[in-house]
């Protein structure tokens, strides 16, 4: 088949860059000094051998981070970042991830390396066999496995552009086999640029077998490799399968998965699946951890690998394919064992390949890869710019171990800096980020169905749940949410069930409203638009109102909605009760934006100081919002006889807002443990009356010491069907309530049963 | 107590007109000639003795229409109108309601009057006793019972304005007792104006006891009255109860409810409840059917009765209360038996009372009742303007029976004119009107929680269901509706479940979309905004598109939404499948607005003719919309080489729109029975995959003869969580599918069990 011609076909070109990616990354847990952790795998991460995102590899300290399959490089890194965040913040705060492929200093006695304490006996036994065959030390080497699949549309377009193969699956197998053989032949190219295991730490080698620094210990015979007898043919899928089967039969491999080739053909869970399914994707296994990248690999590397694989599909291969592969092994061994600062002996070939790749990009109308090519040429000219070169040079100043420890610390710090965020998804709503964090920790698969819309698909085995905005789920029925969306209907139903709600009337015209003036004139009351939120168009009259003020308020409210409510104003403190499945899980007090004087600083200075809290930010992407210093705040100060440069007395509280919304800089204070049970029961019963399972219900309580059964002890203001959760998880003061985890356990009760 | 002073109290005034109303109205079923119907009570009306809206009174032909309690006169008439519509359209189309209190001609033999065939044996036995006591003929007299309750706020304000009574319930009892005694004393006033049973038909009286026409046979001793021995004291609640108990004990009444006083004190289901609950409301029973009003009573009458009762509360009563009441009986007898065209001998008193009522309105700052007072004075001056007078005069021209038959026919015609509407609620969405019709028929209590929002509370015994917009219910879960709201998410989920959906991409920017031009350029495709509806911003390219046209379409779509979808265009016909609880209940084909030529008329004339169909109207308040003749239609015609005044050939179909929406004049054609089961299964399974119970799902099918399992046989376009129902109930062509009834039976499965 002439892939050169096929790839340049106009009907193929559109799909050239369609692909699917996945990364598995191993990293050891170490303490803050860079010593291998002595602790167990974190208990907060569900300890399932089949955790989709976080597993243990050979040893108890060796974490394996697994991304889902993604269709863009961007999504791949989002997932990788998020899983890192979960891993970091699930570990002991005094532990970090080792950034190198070569492990930190190992215990003197090999048997002190703790094999992963897995659930499944088979899994433990397999590791014991590995331990006996290769020794524990070699198993401690870590790396990246890069899973790559050409887009289905691309493979189909290529299939249509040829006539040699009639069977689609067979065609696909041939395509991947070509890429695989070429990859094995040319993989020295990857080793040169991205090899990153130049030196080992003490106790890694029992003897002095490797004294000189190299480009990649891991990529060489000194690394993670089968014995020389293990050879497999890539000439056809049949040979590949039978060679592997024969190796297992002959006892050279304990299982097929013990085959450590630099590339694996994947068709399913088992090698034998290849027979039925053909090759679905390939797994590149020879990628060292990139110490300079927080997640062990850069997007440039992924971009490079993708383009490289396309190039290998395009590039002619040698005639004798097994030999062609074998030659590649020897080339790679040479490059892997070159000194990290030495120019490679394949420099001419490398240059030629870069030229060809550049030409390919041009011929196929691919997007511009200029920075990549500049970088490759720089690294080729100057070996100290390769990963191995950089790491080696850095290490010369102190030691490789010290460099690695410093890098770890930096990564550790970043992961804890904004503990409420989930890296990779910081554009999403905070509650959704926290929920996703918990889902990953619990081993629940997440698919983002619509990112802008905060729409998730969660999956645990065969159990699927859809979640929008963190807590809009299948557990609530539709009409109940519509009830909550309509203030009048909510009030009617609560009233019919015997709860106290503000008395009031709904009006459709200003005239109607005026006719009812006398019903409210002498009482405390509120005028508000029926459906809008956030306090817009609301007027409060705490001691009744003159008719002209009433009229003004009505007119204002009608600007926001075509229906206006005039309601009894209830005195007391407003509390937000978060109710889930008939239980109050959190009660929050919200206090308007304020500062506390110290007798020295001006109000402006106090605000600036208070805003320094990393919990404060903008646009609901932090648990609290910064306090503004705009016209509204100025007016509010003026009303109290203050200005921005006034200096409040020590311990004096100055309010900058009338409303208590968190969105305008208010403080959130958890009072769950302070609210008496009878009020909690009111909240639970009221939510049940609305037929709701997940609800934020707002109660006005004049005095929590007074029993809820007393006349007018409380009033229910409103019920919310998508209540904010983050403000309970990260309150300004008081205990954190991990509501997102409750939501997950409510959706997946099987988590608690196992 | 000085009610005159109390009522004028400023704190009372605001609430003076707060009240609650209810009407029970009896009417006989007659055939189109005005003869008593020989058929049974309609089977389509649930045959429960405790039907909340529609029952039978004494005989099988005597329907009793019962409104719910309402807080405005407007709502009262809305309910009354709706119940009438249901009654009319549940009866045989050749039956109507007799508009008079006096029954139509009765059978010669009294025993031929069929006693109501009720479920409950007790209920039947009670009627047999009445039959023995009073004869069947008297029981055939019909009338209106008007239930009236002073607003709770008013009673409370009055209570606070006095100091004589410390107990609220006792105070309330005294208040109602005063009104009751005064009503009994002055009820001749009501009889004069609104008495409306001047003459009887043949066979009503066995002898010639009453030869002369009167104002109200029903209101006199010849009407529906107990024997003279039945006397009850209204001096206190205790006396009232004990008198009634004694009458039953002495066998003068078979049960308390046999007491036919012109006013009844109501405290609950039984008279004895009065002891515990006090008086909750009063029931005025002396109101004759107003023959000139479609619903048997006018809103002016209700307004009058309300004001009259307020006046009676205000007006001093006589000292000896039992005597005061007895005097009233004799005054009423006089007025009832006066000739309908004679001036009343109480004219002076009547005039004085109108003066007093007018003064009261002024003193209490009540709204203007000018028209009522003018009318009362007119009737007082000219007896031929009273109801009895009018009916008598009309009857003189032919006969009372003929007049009544003509009135019946007019009412009958009106009730069938727009059979899809529910009178009283024609401002609501059509599907909601039809659903309410069915609910009333099934004996489900309806409360409108929010009229503008189409929000209903339905209740059957203790079972409550809330419904918004006809089919948004508790049966669907929240997140499933959110899935359907998001086209991308819907498609993803359907695709993951193996259904064919149009392939496509979502874009957030014009640039993104342009980059993907080549993916679509040569195929049929659609460009559309992600969330808007009704075809706005959509461009269809049936054979691919040039890049500049693609760009135009993209730009157009981005004007409507910040996300744009570009999707494969599927060829075929679009069908709407209505799925309820895993069953396809209806399939509809929608055809763009069109006319069929006759070789004579112009397109404009054909449109005007087609629009004459009473099923066509505006704003979704009719099953079909009128075809417009606006710019869009003109453009569409131009594209086909036509103008408005072109004359299409005979049987030629000319389309006036591209889109098939019913809202733009399209035709709806029921094809439920034509669609093969395998396609119905696709619809059911797809809806199940979305986790939905009530759904309108749109399938494109190229050829229904081709099995659904064939490649590309169908495609799913979208799923709707609030699918229109009326278009299936009243299709342009094909069988009607009463989906609203299915919804009710789905919400209340117990309806089918009993």
From TrEMBL, chains A, B:
<dbReference type="InterPro" id="IPR020561">
    <property type="entry name" value="PRibGlycinamid_synth_ATP-grasp"/>
</dbReference>
<comment type="pathway">
    <text>Sulfur metabolism; glutathione biosynthesis; glutathione from L-cysteine and L-glutamate: step 2/2.</text>
</comment>
<dbReference type="InterPro" id="IPR006334">
    <property type="entry name" value="Glut_cys_ligase"/>
</dbReference>
<dbReference type="Pfam" id="PF18419">
    <property type="entry name" value="ATP-grasp_6"/>
</dbReference>
<dbReference type="GO" id="GO:0004357">
    <property type="term" value="F:glutamate-cysteine ligase activity"/>
</dbReference>
<feature type="domain" description="ATP-grasp">
    <location>
        <begin position="491"/>
        <end position="748"/>
    </location>
</feature>
<dbReference type="InterPro" id="IPR011761">
    <property type="entry name" value="ATP-grasp"/>
</dbReference>
<comment type="function">
    <text>Synthesizes glutathione from L-glutamate and L-cysteine via gamma-L-glutamyl-L-cysteine.</text>
</comment>
<dbReference type="InterPro" id="IPR006335">
    <property type="entry name" value="Glut_biosynth"/>
</dbReference>
<keyword id="KW-0547">Nucleotide-binding</keyword>
<dbReference type="InterPro" id="IPR007370">
    <property type="entry name" value="Glu_cys_ligase"/>
</dbReference>
<protein>
    <recommendedName>
        <fullName>Glutathione biosynthesis bifunctional protein GshAB</fullName>
        <ecNumber>6.3.2.2</ecNumber>
        <ecNumber>6.3.2.3</ecNumber>
    </recommendedName>
</protein>
<comment type="similarity">
    <text>In the N-terminal section; belongs to the glutamate--cysteine ligase type 1 family. Type 2 subfamily.</text>
</comment>
<keyword id="KW-0511">Multifunctional enzyme</keyword>
<dbReference type="Pfam" id="PF04262">
    <property type="entry name" value="Glu_cys_ligase"/>
</dbReference>
<keyword id="KW-0067">ATP-binding</keyword>
<comment type="pathway">
    <text>Sulfur metabolism; glutathione biosynthesis; glutathione from L-cysteine and L-glutamate: step 1/2.</text>
</comment>
<feature type="region of interest" description="Glutamate--cysteine ligase">
    <location>
        <begin position="1"/>
        <end position="336"/>
    </location>
</feature>
<dbReference type="InterPro" id="IPR040657">
    <property type="entry name" value="GshAB_ATP-grasp"/>
</dbReference>
<keyword id="KW-0479">Metal-binding</keyword>
<keyword id="KW-0460">Magnesium</keyword>
<keyword id="KW-0317">Glutathione biosynthesis</keyword>
<keyword id="KW-0436">Ligase</keyword>
<comment type="subunit">
    <text>Monomer.</text>
</comment>
<keyword id="KW-0464">Manganese</keyword>
<dbReference type="InterPro" id="IPR014746">
    <property type="entry name" value="Gln_synth/guanido_kin_cat_dom"/>
</dbReference>
<dbReference type="Pfam" id="PF01071">
    <property type="entry name" value="GARS_A"/>
</dbReference>
